[in-house]
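Question: what's this shape?

___
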Amino acid sequence: MSTAPRPPGERAPDAGRPPRCLVTGATGYIGGRLVPQLLDAGHPVRCLARTPAKLRDHPWASQVEIAAGDVTDAESVRAAMDGVDIAYYLVHALGTGPDFEETDRRAARIFGEQARAAGVHRVIYLGGLTPAGVPESTLSPHLRSRAEVGRILLESGVPTAVLRAAVIIGSGSASFEILRYLTERLPVMVTPSWVRSRIQPIAVRDVLRYLVGCAQLPAEVSRSFDIGGPDILTYHEMMQRYAAVAGLPRRIILPVPVLSPRLSGLWIGAITPVPGALARPLAVSLRHEVVCTEHDITRWIPDPPDGPMGFEEALRLALKRVREAEVATRWSSAAFPGAPSDTLPTDPDWAGGSLCTDVRERTVHASAEELWRVIESIGGENGWYSFPLAWSVRGTLDRLFGGVGLRRGRRDAAHLRVGDSLDFWRVEEIEPGRLLRLRAEMRLPGAAWFELSVERGPANGVRYRQRALFHPRGLLGQLYWWGVSPFHALVFGGMARNLARRAESGRPAGWSRRRAAARTHR
């Protein structure tokens, strides 16, 4: 253990209040999850962001100070550190271009120098786990830069905690998303030899627990800590376990020695939506075995009674079935998820797995009340306002494969409530006058939702919005969506048109059918 001297003008810690924290990278994967954890622990928080507007979707934005600036700009860093006790360094330049190592080096030096000048009590940095006994010069550029940044901060003269982690398991982590997409999209894959490299992954919840706990480390503690979960696995084993937890067939993985690291990055970029500029340097790093050589951090931050979270439990949290309140959260940035393993609204578009959507909107020249009446009466005997034969065929196919089909109908012809069955759907959310969300209970290679909503429109009408969402499971799910997509204009487009016309006509749902039945009776 090394002891870093205190800056000459350092402020004495105020025992009467929790340390004030500065978080850089709050718009990123870890930073966006760390801030609410710090707030829950009672810390005042300031966020340094190059683009502060990116933070406004977070519900905690009003609870923090937001400073505009960049870690490569010494003046803005110095201003952001004024009055700060703990400074979290959670940024890196990976994916910004070929000179990212120099950018990382310059930013780390500025951060360390300004922390010392401002009298900051501690710097906390989340870096990368590096292989034991391997010279730094032979590491991949990504891991080499992570190691160099940690060393620069440790030498800054400010007590520093460097947490070194390998693959972080949680929706939104770039390494995890690569694992997700490769496993879900490729039932058979020819892979580079790095799939046999050993890795010690860690759940994002444990990473956040360590980051928050480091704010209470004694001043004399200034060193690196290896952090990892209880499992040591190869990438091959992680993909097979992912498939098992996700309910996918066992993957056929054929490692070959001919794919260079550069070709591996191109291959990952082609198969996954993770940007190539990010995927390539990460792929090069996968050739290294990254396993913890110590677990000293427990001297100051004890493990939970059950120990760090295991790989499969972390997977289950990251892949858990989306709850009704999270459908909008994960994909339309409408809310904030409740767990660190969930996707945040500000996560990159490629995070959270694939989501296929079909959105239809129409201006309806009717009152909001009339449009809502038609929406709430959909399904059952009232029908689905488009191509009845297609709905009938889909219901028959569902029954042939053991599903519920269309036989359930609806409980009430005019009104719905949460939990009602509606043909092969289930009412998952209803906001009277505004939103009806249905969850599919038909047989599907994935999970599906259907939303119908009333939105404010022009002066003489309202806006009808219809959204179908499908979260495919594996390659079969992808093929299913693209197989039925050609029929969407006919089914979903026709539905939007006919439902709008029904609302504009002012006639109750099922009016034509009841009139025909009455004529037949006469």
Summary: DSSP finds 16 helices and 19 strands in the chain. The longest strand covers residues 446-456. Confidence is low (pLDDT under 50) at residues 1-9, 321-338, 511-522.
